[in-house]
Design goal:
The complex is a heterotrimer of chains A (291), B (428) and C (275).
Chain A: E1 2-3, H1 5-34, H2 51-58, H3 60-91, H4 98-104, H5 113-123, H6 131-137, H7 151-179, H8 183-191, H9 196-224, H10 228-234, H11 245-254, H12 259-289
Chain B: H1 3-21, E1 26-32, H2 37-53, E2 57-63, H3 66-79, E3 85-88, H4 90-98, H5 106-116, H6 120-123, E4 127-128, E5 131-132, E6 135-141, E7 143-147, H7 148-154, H8 162-172, E8 178-181, H9 188-199, H10 218-231, H11 243-251, E9 255-260, H12 264-270, E10 278-281, E11 294-303, H13 308-322, H14 324-331, H15 343-347, H16 349-352, H17 355-359, H18 361-372, E12 374-375, H19 387-393, H20 396-405, H21 411-427
Parallel strand pairs in B: 1-2, 1-3, 8-9, 11-12
Antiparallel strand pairs in B: 3-11, 4-5, 6-11, 7-9, 7-10
Helix pairs in contact in B: 4-19, 9-20, 10-21, 19-21, 20-21
Chain C: H1 5-33, H2 37-41, H3 55-63, H4 66-97, E1 98-99, H5 103-112, H6 118-131, H7 138-162, H8 166-174, H9 179-190, H10 192-207, H11 211-216, H12 225-232, H13 240-270
Helix pairs in contact in C: 1-13, 3-13, 4-7, 4-10, 4-12, 7-10, 8-9, 10-13, 12-13
Classes of the chains: A mainly alpha (291), B alpha/beta (428), C mainly alpha (275).
Chain lengths: 291, 428, 275
Amino acid sequence: MKKNTGLAFVFVAPALLFLLAVLGWPLVQAVIFSFQDIGIIGSKGHFVGFANYAEVLGRAHFWAALGRSVVWVIGNAVVQTVLALGTALILNQKFPGLRVARVWVILTWIVPTVVVVIIWRWLLSTSGGMINPLLMEAGIISRPIGFFATRRSAMIALILINSWRWFPFTALMILAGLTRIPGDLYEAARIDGASATRRFTRITWPLLQPTLVVLGIIGTLLSFNVFDVIWLMTAGGPSQATETLPVLIYETAFKGYRLSGAATISVLTSIILMSFAVLATRAMTASEANR
Amino acid sequence: MTAFRFVAAAGLALTLLTGAAYAEPVTLTWWQMEQPPQRVKRIQELLDEFNKAHPDIQVKQEPQSWGDVYAKAPAAFAAGNGPDLLNSIPDFTTVIKKIGAVVPVDDLVKDLDTKHHFIKATLAPYQYDGHTWAVPAYNMAISMWYRKSAFKEAGLSVPKTWSEWKAAAQKLSGSGRYGIGLPANKQLYTDQTVYSFMVNDGAADIYKDDGSIAFDNPKTVAAYQAYADLQKLSPPDSPSWTWGEAEACFNSKSCGMVLQFTVISSYNAQAEGDAADLGVAAVPHADDQSESATISYSNGIMITTKDAAKQKAAKVFLSWLLEPEHYGRFLNMEPGLFLPVTEDGAKADSFWNDPVTTKYKSQVETMIENSKNGKLFGFTTGKVFPSIGAISAQNVIAETLQHIVVDGQSAADAVKAGQAHMAEIAGK
Amino acid sequence: MRRTVAQSVALYGGLLLLVLVIGLPFWWVVTGSIKMPQEIIQRVPTMVPHSFTLRHFSKLLQSSDFPVYLLNSIVVALFSMVVTVVLALPAAYAFFRMAFPGRHLLYRLILVAYAFPGIVVLIPLYGLFAKIGLVDSRASLVIVNVALALPFSIWMMRSFLGSVPREIEEAAVIDGAPATTILIRIMTPLIAPGIASVAIFAFISSWTEYLFASVLIVSDARRTIPPGFAGMIGQYQIDWGLLLAGATAATLPVVILFALIGRWFVSGLTEGAVK
């Protein structure tokens, strides 16, 4: 490998500086806000030390939202992994229309979130929505249900909607990993008489690990920070059942008019996520080294 | 000096004078929150007319959404690029006032009041701390909507009390239809409908005179109980409703009654559009009250520029807007929804000359009548406390209802929790 | 390669499920957008429309600023796409092929960029943009979109670069080619499909961005589709026909885009191994 420090920095610097300026600096600002007592945006703030942190960590509000975020992330991870993996496996086979399928499966991802929200809000409603009549016709339910009427069903519905939006994208990323597995390995295994399941557990799964791990880390981070779907669909309701940390931050800043409070929660959230990211990438590098 | 030279000199002097008098037109940026396309279009028509008639003042609209503007406006003012005119509802004004961006309009309002006679209920929420903080522009008040044919079929007369109301709703329910559609969402619409009950139960004041919260009292609990009972007769997804879903329910005949500012334009476009069958009445009151009241949302326009020339121009524009010949057309940007805030506006030809308003004349007249007995939570005692901004923004009134409907708490416990939350906000 | 009956059933059954799960909602929305208002909200909905009207679309195009939103979305997305690729490609190459101190640390750091909720960045960024006069400008959106797409794009690029056999590069090095030449004249053509994938990713990410667009853009003339569309939902009323027409119209441009160049996105991902 060429040792090319100067040129390397020239290559890397633009991207790095860009990210530092656009993401890094505002983060520093947010940390500063968290040590002040700013209410409405634009009003003056005074230094209050760790008072905000003590208050936020002392109230159940923060921990409840954190718990919901964890449920949200895990729910999304499970549903999306199952759907995406299944879809990727299907798209890795040969069948008529494969090309078309691979291109159009991503339809739910290329559409703006507002559109996704409108679609599902209408479909799940009782005035003209298709889902209730369908479920009733299939005999699954006897009366129409309000999907966002109870805390549990609201969280489940949101997880399903968000997964519906993202799983094709994740599927294509997994597919990319799948296509890199050399076909000869499968051929050799087949000649040796290995069943489909065996081929999956011995070849597919292990060789897919690196892709899955990185997708898992990035996916978890992105999933944790999802805001617009939840906000536009339920605004954190009903009765705060879907109030995850990003939603709490938004509400604290713009509905509670406590900018510093929101900044504090943001900083705490970032610390949690960064710890996760660091630990996870360390594990990833370790397992890569073992290969 | 010859006559010619005199005329020439006079002509020159005149040219110089008018040349000096000509200045750059004052441009005003107006953030208004009526984004639906037909409303933006109507406002633009009015602005084009105004701008043409006033070459020295040019007003430009920037449609914003209520959802974003609570975040955007303070940020814009803090950054120094806020608008010159800003639409408002009463609690939003308290937020903008807190950051010092709004300018009192006492003289202008006094002047306009003499000319056009404001309906008191629309002015009250903007008058406190010794000043007037916005010019009322259009009003909305909740009424109860039903179909006369459905009532006739069920042998019902228009309910005036809560017991009558419950009976009527029960009678209208059945075979997949719901007697009444009440929302239970943590959202502004639910704040509004719940308060319609509170106001009809003598529980209109949520503040005491000293700014502490008076939310937890037997009347409020009774109001929530009555609401929760009726909500049981509503469609199962009503905990996620905003205004649109309730209207759709009514229009598709799934709901027998709804509480709404209006259903006129959607009933006209999406349902039968039979003016003779559309019934509207005042929101029923508790059995022990003598008359009905409602929640009224006076939408106003604030002047938010510190520049003297712009302020002057803004006053010219606002006066122009409330002139009867223009005002009716402004209100009819959404016919059958926005009600006049002035007495002569209620009589203006420009208001009644709209096909939809004419078609539903009797309904609109009833709506205007109902609006006169309107109140708004946090603005009922003449004293306004800044915490109302956060209490409104966080939809605590609706949140309290959700404790009953979603969490299964008793009305008394829910109201207690609501009181605690409001007190916490008020304490900051 | 023979499939058992069971495998075929699983495969085609899964495919059918996919088509239904992804396609049905869009079918309902598109058919809903051409239904008469009464049919849209009726209690028992219809799978196939019984009525037909174009009024929702005409209202959308004539009375709303939708065409303006569309244009803005396209402009912002195109610029975001170009800037992202230009920044990501050299960075990815450096991370992958060049040795420099802190290489691993920096690479991990870039992924960590996703550890921050967007909202924490929103207000300070608004303040910063206000100071330099970038509020209510499409440039501000481009800047934000690039920042949001860059980390993942760098990772994607790095994977594509990783699939290029070393021999090709080593041959160039032996021939005395400097790194820049290697990058531009040799690597880039080889991973062109990969670049296309990243470009499309950046484009779509920009297309669907809502939070920043709703706060940073103030005037209607510069609004993009997501906040513009959210605004059409309107306070106090919902015109479902208009919304469904808007949803259809907001989907159409990217559908057309994908019909034209969608295969590049997929082929970039799936034909990773270089021939």
